[in-house]
Write a structure and sequence with these properties.
about 90 residues; globular; alpha+beta; two-stranded antiparallel ribbon; about 15% helix; about 30% strand
Length: about 90
């Protein structure tokens, strides 16, 4: 999912540097960044800043450690930055 693709209600997927992907289904609170091992630190910082712009941030290591995938990539799980559920539609007004 990269820039221009509908990502979640009211948001567009952030444009991410090469080697970094945003994966998952935000409606199930199942989002992660998958980072290739050859990604420079500046690209990872850029990707983290982009996810914050759409209301997501990585879990802390105490909450969930990064996962190492078979291809050497690292998966960082993301959660909403707001205590409100950003995936809920606003209530209908009568």
């Amino acid at each position: 999912m990269q820039g221009g693709t509908a990502f979640m209600r009211g948001f567009e997927s952030p444009s991410l540097p090469p080697g970094v992907r945003l994966v998952g289904d935000p409606t199930d609170w199942n989002c992660a960044l998958v980072i290739r091992p050859d990604s420079p630190a500046c690209d990872v910082r850029e990707a983290l800043n982009a996810t914050r712009l759409v209301g997501l941030e990585p879990l802390t290591e105490e909450e969930h450690e990064p996962e190492f995938l078979d291809d050497g990539s690292v998966r960082l799980w993301l959660v909403p930055t707001s205590p409100d559920d950003p995936f809920n539609e606003p209530p209908a007004t009568a």
